[in-house]
Structures are given as structure tokens and as C-alpha cells.
Amino acid sequence: MIKKFGEDNCDKKLCKQAIRSLMDSGRCVYNYVGGSYIALPPKG
Hints:
44 residues, alpha+beta, 2 strands, elongated
């Protein structure tokens, strides 16, 4: 996001806050398969 919008409009702290908000709301989950990553939660 920083690369796309520039450091003046988006910083690492803001990105972390956005990720935390997505995790807390259940819209995204952390997965681990050879490394950790963010994914959409499984359906059902």
C-alpha cells in the first residue's frame, strides 16, 4: 500500500491498524502454510 499510495498518504502503522481491524472483524484470518499470510476465512 505504501508503494501504491506513497509514504505521505500511507505508513506502516496505518497498514498494521487496517490489518488488525480486518482480523478483529473476522473478514480476514491468519494462515500458516510454510509461512504466515493473510487470507479470507473459509466458507461455511
